[in-house]
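INTERNAL AUDIT FORM
Audit reference: QA-55
Scope: verify that the stored structure record matches its stored sequence.
Auditor: D.O.
Record contents follow.
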Amino acid sequence: TSGKIILESMENETSVPEKDVTDQAVRPQTDRPTEVTEACKELNEENVDLVRRIFECLGADKFVKILKDTKEIQAGKGLKTADGSRNRTAGGVFLFLASEVIGRNEFNRICSANRKAKRKLKQQEKDRHRNVKPKLDSKGSNHPK
C-alpha cells in the first residue's frame, strides 16, 4: 500500500480536534506511556516526547491506526523522502503520516512545543551543573590526593 491510499482512507474519518500541547512537558504523562514507549521501540524513534505529544493529540485509536499503516508501508516498498533520494525511516514514515492526519499547522505547533521543552530541559541541566560546587577536602582543596 502507498502512503497516499492510506491517507485518503484516513481523510474520510473525522478530523482531529485541536488540543493544546504547548506545555505538555509539565503536564502529567499520558495514561498509556507503555503504548508510546513500545511504539518508539518499534519505530526506532528516539524522540519519545514528540511521539507522546502526537499520541495526546490524536488519541489512542488514530495513533494505533497510523502505527499500523506505518508498518504496512515499511513492509512494502516504503515511502521516499521529499527529495526522493532514499526511503524514510520507520519513525519518519510515522511522523509523515501523523502530520498529514493532524494537519501541517498543528503538527508544526507540536514540533515547536517539543523543541521548546527540549531547550528548557537542556538549560535546566546546564543551570544544575553551574550550581554544583566542588566538594572540598579537609584542607580546603578540591584537588585529588
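Auditor finding: record pair retrieved intact. The helical segments are 3-11, 33-43, 48-58, 60-75, 90-102, 104-130.
Action required: none
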